[in-house]
Amino acid sequence: MLLQAGLVGCGNITDTHARAAREAGLGIAAFFGRDPQKAEAFAGRYGGRAFARYEDFLAHRPMDLVVIGSPSGVHAEQGIAACERGLHVLVEKPIDVTTGRGEALVAAAEKAGVRLAVLFQDRLKPDLVRLRDFVRGGGLGRVLLASARVKWHRPPEYYSASRWRGTKALDGGAALVNQGIHTVDLLLWLLGPVVRVRGLTATLLHAIEGEDVAVALLRFASGAVGTLEATTVAFPGYPRRVEISGTGGTVVVEGDRVVAADLRTPAPRLVSAGDEGVASAATAVVSDATPHRRLIE
Q1: What average pLDDT does the chain have?
Q2: Integer Cα distance of 66 and 50 in angstroms
Q3: What are the residue ranges of helices labelled H in 126-209?
Q4: How far is CA 117 from the centre of its chain?
Q5: Are 208 and 247 in contact (CB under 8 A)?
Q6: Which of 122, 165, 128, 68 has its CA nearest to residue 259?
Q7: Whole-model pTM above 0.90?
Q8: End-to-end C-alpha distance for the chain, whole angstroms
Q9: Cα separation of 78 and 8, whole Å?
Q10: By the 8 A CB rule, do 226 and 208 touch?
Q11: Overall average pLDDT of the 202-229 stretch
Q12: Closest CA to 246 of 263, 268, 229, 269
């Protein structure tokens, strides 16, 4: 029998979640959205029932898991309620906008004995998986320096047309926790924990509460140092770029692909050609649901 998924949010990312769930072979049981018309539209497109009350949505059966794509500041609240109903939880990044609420969701999942995961799809992209194996296997030798740049662009209406984007309560800020967070996770996944951070944020262009520019200096537990930039003011938007240098050479990621590897001992199949993932630099629409499908699987 197919596992049945309920989808929460009914915004832009929920369409990606629905496509990914369908491609992964899940049944789509229900949608919940605060706007009933949007929930009905999703149900008409993908099947399942539409709900305007979260309690009614959680009570719907059969349903085995929920995929949460609502504003970031309600992720933990909605996830905890799902855990208490015995439902597994996949939550869009970030887990929430405070560590306390994120930890409460983790504790609720452990107490209920259900599975919980955050949708950091970079961890299942083939180039990045190969790169992690290479770095963790010592291919770069001792890692010395990393630089990460997320110089993206969002037009004013990206924020003005939304009730939650750019707010501290529901977005947790803006450019760093929303756009830059995948690259933060990628650095941690590739290079291990950070033990010291010095940061600076500013709101230079957009009329929002949160930051549209963030920069940070990082020291990793390994001893490596790094820099991170995240912004939504860099017109027209450029691919995410990560450069990592070690005693064995340097590798460069653009978008989702390794585009250069200047190594003392060349590694086969590390560099790949093709699309460099520029779409997300200028739009919030996720056209390819494959990485999300892999996470669901």
Answers
A1: 95
A2: 14
A3: 126-136, 156-160, 181-191
A4: 11
A5: no
A6: 128
A7: yes
A8: 15
A9: 9
A10: no
A11: 98
A12: 263
